[in-house]
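Lecture notes, unit on protein representations.

Consider one protein chain, 147 amino acids long.
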Amino acid sequence: MIHPEAVLRLAALLTPLCLILSACVTAKATSAPACGDFLDKQGDKPAYIEYQGCHSEYEGQGKPLVARYRLDGTHAAEAEDFLRRRYGIQPLRFVCCGWESTPHSWVDDGHAWNLVFASEETLLSARAQWSRIPTFHIRAEQYTEEP
C-alpha cells in the first residue's frame, strides 16, 4: 500500500514539471504557422510584389503552406535585387522557356522555408528584355513539419 504522504510528496515534486510541460505544449500549439502574406510578415515587401493568396499543401512533403505572388516584368530586376538582398536567392537564369531562380531554402524560427522566383513562359532570353515579359511569379513555402 502506498502511503498518502508519499503521494502528496510526489505530487508536490511533479506539479512544477507538469506546469513546465504544459507551457511548452501550449507554446508549441500557439506557434503553429498560419497561411498568409509571408513576405509582408517578414517586412520590407515592395508594393509592386502583389500577394495572390495562400493555401496549404498538406499532402506534400513537409506539409507546406504556399503563398503566391506576382509582379509585372517592369519590376523584375528590382524584385530580383530585393530577393537577393533579403533572402539570398541566386540570380535568375534563362532555362528553355523562361527565367527562374534555383529554389532557395533556409530555417527561421524553427520552420523551414523555400522561395522560388520565375517568369511566365517566354522566349525572351536577354535580361534587358525582362520589361517585355508580362508577369513574374514568386512562390514562398513555409513547411509546417519540423526541419
